[in-house]
Amino acid sequence: MADVFVAGETLVDFVPDPGETPGEVDGYAHRPGGAPANVAVGLARLGPPPAFWTRLGDDAFGAFLAERLADEGIPETYVERVAGKTTLAVVSPPGEDGPRFSFYGPREATFGFDPNAVPTEALRDDGAAASPAGTSGPPWVHLGGVVLTHPRGRAATREILAAAAAADCLVSFDVNYRPDLVPDDATESASAAVREAVAESDVVLCSDEDVAAAGLSTNEGEELARDLLGFGPHTAVVTLGSDGALAVSTDDAPWGAATVRHEGYPVEAVDATGAGDAFAAGLLSRLAGGSGADREGEPLRDALAFGNATAALSVRSVGGMGSLPSRDEVAAFLAERE
Q: Which CATH number does the domain housing residue 235 bear?
């Protein structure tokens, strides 16, 4: 498959022990997390590891994350160690009202990407994200919406999008908006940055909650996907939780105009943390494997099925990054269901 360049946050998830509310939970376990980090590791387990630009604090949690990324085969080339403390994301127990993730600690080290340090060489023909000889598609860039809550993260994302366009990369963007990270006086600028990222991307992934929080659309399902296409991408993918996912693409997509839906795979879910990231990794691993097919829409249908299988496997154990499956595990899971 063509190589992928992923950029975004790596942080620590605090995952609760069994219990419906904080009062019923005995403790929390720290796990590596962050949506782009989960996607990067998911891609590494499904195929060649991507290049990954991220920032890790110089505290003990940063060292913990650096070790985990290295263990997963993520190249150290664009993994920055910076002064500061790692942001912590506490996962809510299932019975607690409010956001699923609550963020604690300073944000600068984790989200304050330097727009002047964007590794544009990774997107050129001589860089880490260039398509290897013999692969069929252009390189891909994958970005997420959480860093857009930080002013430097917004500026760095704009630089990455400009570099990706100059290098003829395909861009996938996961809206993944977290309004609780945005100060009241920055709501409009953060929402505008999300709209800009959607407009400059080729493939957009989202849930209806993400899009509503960012102020892009209040619709659901196929109507939501078509609203996103109006901003400029050629493909919009909407995740539907246990109901699977759907995608709508235009004639500009490499796989042609299509509307496809996959109902997902029923499994006994233990923990949904990182399920959307697992889906994104599975989807991207298939889309980046080639841009053509004999029948229109088939690459998209195949990618939805593979993404749903990856997500289904990920929810059968606790934690986001640690529960991501390998390519062989996904292949065996799909073979059993054929």
A: 3.40.1190.20
Contacts of 103 (CB under 8 A, 6+ apart): 87, 88, 89, 90, 178, 180, 181
Residue 291 structural domain: 36-50+115-337
Rounded average pLDDT per 10-residue block, the chain, 338 residues: 84 92 92 96 95 97 97 96 96 80 93 95 63 55 96 97 95 94 90 97 96 92 97 97 94 95 89 89 88 58 95 86 92 90
Q: Name the phi and psi angles at 89, rounded to 5.
A: -120, 115
The reply to whether 94 falls in a domain is: no
- Short-list 122, 110, 2, CA closest to 52: 122
Q: What is the pTM of this model?
A: 0.93
Q: Which residues pair with 55 in a beta bridge?
A: 80
Query: Contact at 8 Å (CB) between 147 and 185?
Result: no
Q: Does 291 reside within a domain?
A: yes
Number of domains making up the chain: 1
